[in-house]
């Protein structure tokens, strides 16, 4: 559900800017009812969830779709990796993340820790650096759309996997075993452990979430690419300005002029080196330019 009416209106405006895109939303400002969710799952043929943010650590919606006997197409991202079995219950779509995985705490980390920006803002900045493999998604969708038998087979496998691993009775038993195990560990500990405060970089903590690290040095504009001006969309423009160091308009000019974008281009307009890969990731994420096909 949306945080407020203005965000919902901006989201709707973005949807309507794409031709041939039909969206039926369940919920809105108010959360969808349980019955509405059940009806939606019962009416569906395929479930898709392309999580791209570090807030998504497991994925209850995926479990619900598995229980509803649906084949699942999800991003290859953190907990989702463990839920969906590739080619058996669905497909994992590769992800790339433009994060710095050394031990350096960046400006976003600092501003979040001192509460200059809130949790949602931090999550937004991190998710803008995550890229979902669009071509892989299209390929897997085409396979399932055109193969009813495969959809139904994967759906049955999904439900069986849910029944064997994720029903409440099984999970609650696992929690009880975990609590007992932790209690035994605490009681058997004879050493006094001093607590040490340690705040590693957020990107370092979540470095295992994506399929791989994003390291694109050159992206090209194609005939079906999204216009570069989408960087100015008010739904995310504030986040983009932070990532681009307030050089968004210069980047748009570069892309429109050269029909490409490179690390050299970004360097020429003064984007510092440690932020260049993040800018490239945002451009690819939004479909403005792509890796050479």
Question: How would you describe the overall organization of this protein?
Answer:
Helix 3 (60-67) packs across helix 8 (148-165). It is globular and about 60 Å long. The strands form three sheets. Strands 1-2-3 form a three-stranded parallel β-sheet, with helices on both faces. A three-stranded mixed β-sheet has the order 5-4-6. By secondary structure, the chain is mainly alpha-helical. The mean pLDDT is 91. It has helices at 5-16, 34-43, 60-67, 80-83, 107-113, 119-127, 134-145, 148-165, 168-188, 202-205, 237-243, 248-258, 263-268, 273-285; strands spanning 47-49, 72-75, 90-93, 95-97, 130-132, 212-213, 218-220, 260-262. It contains 14 helices and eight strands.
List the helices and strands and how they pair.
Layout: H1 5-16, H2 34-43, E1 47-49, H3 60-67, E2 72-75, H4 80-83, E3 90-93, E4 95-97, H5 107-113, H6 119-127, E5 130-132, H7 134-145, H8 148-165, H9 168-188, H10 202-205, E6 212-213, E7 218-220, H11 237-243, H12 248-258, E8 260-262, H13 263-268, H14 273-285
Parallel strand pairs: 1-2, 2-3, 4-6
Antiparallel strand pairs: 4-5, 7-8
Helix pairs in contact: 3-8
Q: Radius of gyration from the CA trace?
A: 22 Å
Describe the main β-sheet briefly.
3 strands, parallel
Side by side, the strands of the main sheet go: 1-2-3
Mean pLDDT: 91
Beta-sheet strand percentage?
5-15%
Low-confidence stretches: none
Tell how many strands the DSSP assignment holds: 8
- Write the H/E string, N to C: HHEHEHEEHHEHHHHEEHHEHH
Distance linking N and C termini? 36 Å
């Amino acid at each position: 559900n949306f945080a407020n009416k203005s965000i919902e209106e901006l989201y709707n405006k973005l949807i309507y800017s794409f031709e041939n895109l039909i969206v039926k939303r369940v919920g809105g400002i108010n959360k969808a009812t349980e019955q509405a969710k059940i009806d939606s799952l019962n009416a569906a043929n395929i479930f898709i969830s392309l999580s791209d943010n570090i807030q998504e650590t497991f994925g209850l919606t995926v479990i619900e779709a598995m229980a509803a006997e649906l084949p699942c197409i999800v991003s290859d991202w953190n907990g989702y990796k463990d839920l969906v079995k590739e080619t058996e219950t669905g497909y994992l779509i590769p992800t790339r993340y433009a994060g710095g995985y050394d031990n350096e705490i960046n400006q976003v980390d600092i501003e979040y820790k001192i509460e200059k920006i809130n949790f949602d803002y931090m999550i937004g900045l991190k998710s803008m650096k995550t890229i979902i493999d669009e071509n892989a998604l299209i390929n897997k969708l085409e396979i399932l759309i055109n193969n009813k038998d495969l959809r139904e087979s994967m759906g049955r496998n999904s439900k069986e996997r849910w029944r064997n691993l994720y029903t409440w009775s099984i999970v609650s038993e696992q929690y009880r075993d975990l609590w007992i195990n932790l209690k035994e560990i605490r009681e058997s500990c004879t050493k006094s452990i001093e607590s040490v405060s340690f705040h590693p970089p957020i990107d370092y903590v979540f470095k295992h979430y994506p399929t791989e690290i994003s390291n694109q040095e050159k992206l090209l504009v194609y005939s079906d690419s999204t216009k570069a001006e989408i960087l100015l969309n008010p739904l995310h423009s504030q986040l983009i300005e932070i990532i681009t160091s307030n050089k968004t308009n210069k980047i748009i000019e570069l892309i429109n002029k050269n029909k490409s974008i490179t690390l050299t281009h970004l360097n020429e307009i003064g984007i510092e080196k440690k932020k260049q890969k993040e800018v490239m990731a945002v451009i690819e994420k939004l479909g403005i330019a792509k890796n050479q096909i």
